[in-house]
């Protein structure tokens, strides 16, 4: 009986995870193997990559072609853009992000990490822990991914040697301890795999009898679902749209005024006392709707419409919170910033900061330090280049209502936009 047939039958919810690490360590192949062994590949897609593999003179199917969708990626055999894939095992649904390994595409990796709940850190068993391994591990730590799986890949190329695996695990543990991952309660697990041969991905195989832990699919199946990691219980509801029906022939809609948005954290139900920010006006929730139908409770990540008992002037960009539990209004922002643009961050420029549904003008007030990813040392800096990570300060034209990123990933994050090009040039996490 295969591992797929032994899976439990209960629904385990959605899991968003990503693969990251250095180039050529087998991230795309691992995802392809996972999709192949869980029977999640459509017949026409499998036929297409079989033909491509034969044209290249390969003896086996190149499963990395399943995620390397860009022509440039296939020509160079690398991942450039973030590739998302979706699959289900019957007990759980997955969204996978395949992040690029090259340092120059670190900004794409940050994008993938921003929504992941679990990260698979890939390490080539022949090369051990590399600079890019440390860089990506630091970023996963920075963006608050709570569950890390260190997959030591290409074990088939080191004769499935346990001593090699143990040495790499010890080296990574020392790095993780130095970075404070273990002390801060991050869940770090290790597994030896061969993505090419399929060992310990879905099936255990016979090559590594010395490893008695779970397979990669076993770890994924039992990981906490998306949205359950240390999520804040504070209710945060950025207003995205005000619904005022114009159907004058329907008297029931004459006085309808709903506030649409996504519950970023916490819950909301009829009768809750709420405060509207930035005005500070208080009211009570009259009803919570989804698709025009009332529901008892609106939960985190649900897009709902709130109806209030009082006529309150609310616009897009305002935030509705529970009374007595409002975040602090910030006109000066301290944050860890990943700079994503080829154009350096300039204190002379004005930028736009987009936080939830609110956009404000901002200027850089200072760079406290830049992080040396390899050593985690704090170094002085006067400007930031692409892929730099630093603690910075911004002065805002209007206040925003942000929580610290460590307590709320949704309301603690923002992006920096170049107002002249409208390009996203930075991703920040509020301190």
UniProtKB/TrEMBL annotation:
Keyword Protease included in the entry's annotation: no
Domain Tr-type G: 12-228
The protein's Enzyme Commission number: 2.7.7.4
One Pfam family recorded for the sequence: GTP_EFTU
Gene Ontology BP terms: sulfur compound metabolic process
The keyword Chaperone is annotated on this UniProt entry: no
Keywords: ATP-binding, GTP-binding, Nucleotide-binding, Nucleotidyltransferase, Transferase
Gene3D superfamilies membership: P-loop containing nucleotide triphosphate hydrolases, Translation factors
InterPro entries: CysN_GTP-bd, CysN_II, CysN_NoDQ_III, G_TR_CS, GTP-eEF1A_C, P-loop_NTPase, SO4_adenylTrfase_lsu, T_Tr_GTP-bd_dom
One Gene Ontology molecular-function label: GTPase activity
Membrane-spanning segments: none
PANTHER family: TRANSLATION FACTOR
This protein's name: sulfate adenylyltransferase
Natural source organism: Niveibacterium umoris
């Amino acid at each position: 009986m295969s591992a797929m047939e032994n899976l439990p039958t209960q629904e385990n919810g959605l899991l968003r995870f990503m693969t990251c690490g250095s180039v050529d360590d087998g991230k795309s192949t691992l995802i392809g193997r996972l999709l192949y062994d869980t029977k999640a590949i459509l017949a026409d897609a499998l036929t297409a990559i079989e033909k491509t593999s034969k044209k290249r003179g390969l003896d086996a199917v190149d499963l990395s072609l399943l995620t390397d969708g860009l022509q440039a990626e296939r020509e160079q055999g690398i991942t450039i853009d973030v590739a998302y894939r979706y699959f289900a095992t019957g007990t759980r649904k997955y969204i996978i992000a395949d992040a690029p390994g090259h340092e120059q595409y670190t900004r794409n990796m940050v994008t993938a990490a921003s929504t992941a709940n679990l990260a698979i850190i890939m390490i080539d068993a022949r090369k051990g822990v590399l600079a890019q391994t440390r860089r990506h591990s630091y970023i996963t730590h920075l963006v608050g991914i709570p569950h890390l799986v260190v997959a030591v890949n290409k074990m088939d190329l080191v004769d499935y040697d346990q001593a090699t695996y143990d040495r790499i695990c010890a080296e990574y543990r020392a790095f993780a301890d130095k970075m404070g991952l273990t002390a801060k309660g991050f869940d770090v697990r290790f597994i030896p795999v061969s993505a090419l041969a399929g060992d310990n991905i879905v099936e255990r195989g016979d090559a590594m009898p010395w490893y008695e832990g779970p397979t990669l699919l076993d770890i994924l199946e039992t990981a906490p679902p998306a949205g359950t990691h240390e999520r804040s219980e504070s209710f945060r509801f950025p207003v995205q749209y005000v619904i005022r029906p114009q159907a004058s022939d329907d008297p029931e809609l004459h006085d309808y005024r709903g506030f649409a948005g996504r519950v970023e954290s916490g819950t909301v139900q009829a009768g809750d006392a709420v405060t509207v920010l930035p005005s500070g006006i208080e009211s009570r929730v009259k009803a919570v709707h989804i698709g025009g139908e009332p529901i008892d409770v609106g939960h985190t990540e649900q897009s709902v419409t709130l109806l209030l008992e009082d006529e309150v002037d609310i616009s897009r960009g305002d935030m509705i919170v529970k009374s007595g539990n409002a975040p602090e209004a910030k006109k000066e922002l301290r944050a860890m910033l990943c700079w994503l643009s080829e154009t350096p961050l300039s204190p002379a420029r004005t930028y736009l900061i987009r936080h939830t549904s609110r956009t404000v003008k901002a200027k850089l007030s200072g760079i406290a330090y830049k992080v040396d990813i390899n050593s985690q040392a704090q170094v002085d800096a006067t400007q930031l280049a692409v892929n730099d990570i630093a603690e910075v300060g911004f002065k805002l034209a209007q206040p925003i209502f942000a929580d610290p990123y460590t307590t709320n990933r949704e309301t603690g994050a923002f992006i920096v936009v170049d107002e002249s090009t409208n390009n996203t040039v930075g991703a920040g996490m509020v301190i």
